[in-house]
Input
Amino acid sequence: MKPRHKRIVFAVIAVVAIGIAAKLIIASIDKGSSYFYSPMKVLAGEAPKDQVFRIGGLVKVGSMQRIGKTLTVEFIITDDQSAEITTHYTGILPDLFKEGQGVVAKGRLRDDGIFNAEEVLAKHDEKYLAPEVKDALEEAHNEATNKKEKSQ
Amino acid sequence: MSINWFKYSSPTTFYPLAGKMIPFFGWLTALLTIGGLYWGFFETPDTLSDQKEYYRIIYIHVGAAWMSMWLYIMMAAWALAGLVFQTRLSYMIASAIAPTGAIATFLALWTGAFWGKTSWGTWWDWDPRMTSELILLFLYMGYMALQSAIDDPRRADRAAALLALVGLVCVPIIFWSINCPNPNECAALHQTSKPGGGNMDPNILIAMLVVALAFWMYSFVAVLMRVRNIILERERHTTWVNEMLEDKQ
Output
């Protein structure tokens, strides 16, 4: 083999090795270290105790209320599978915080099962549409599903 | 007829070619920037279904983030070409890409911080997407630092090229950090980032793509200019550089 061919073989091996390494790292990120825990996992006791962690989910519609005359708010973080975590937070909520919206809350779980959040972040989706367009799309979607149900 | 594939792989022939290409890419950059930003500011909705005016950061943020990853791939590719073919110019192009890539990465993180503060409620969080993008910035800086730390340019090129190659592992991780096949497994603060699919107002999409293209054209300008400087600096003792400089005087 000429030296140049040797170097080409080296280059191919290097690129393949990098690809395998990336694949392995991505696989371990998917399974192992979670950025946040879902309410379901927290109820199952998978979240660390006596330690700060994050819960990710949706703010349950109609669950938000102020506790007495304090700055503390109470709301429920839920997921699709009806697991619910009651959360307390004292402070200013982000602009996008709304019932039905995604949130990531960082804090500790109290012994009585209430999550004491130190920080509440709002998530937003990848939809970049004007409000009227989004409403129209949702209406069209609802009509289509209604028609389907009727025809069945 | 045989084509000489390596005609422009020597600094002597590439230097004037790069000089001719710079104005072309420069004009494209100016036109696309003005057009894209005009479209983004005046032909798009003022508020979205959830976000307000600040969503317009997307025009700079996405273009910068795409370039930060694409330039790293290009830098590693030229570094690899240098290691395989041992052409000086390949190394020069790789090291010319690094500062532009680092700037794009910084811009993505910086505009992301502003966007994050207004929408999510925080400047920074150790979310997988943000963390892996920060590592990319450190890789660019490490590449530049390593190259300038070794005095012999040939050894510096080879060492930095290896670092660039190993760091390539970061790019797919940045991409997959939020676009993983099963969205339920991607626990991140950052929203997914697949453009199109009816999730984006067509005018927003057009403006975003045009500005991203402008970033690309700008990268050509910046990299070609920097390559020319590197060529002059490294070849300053050769006769062709001295003859050219004498002609100009």
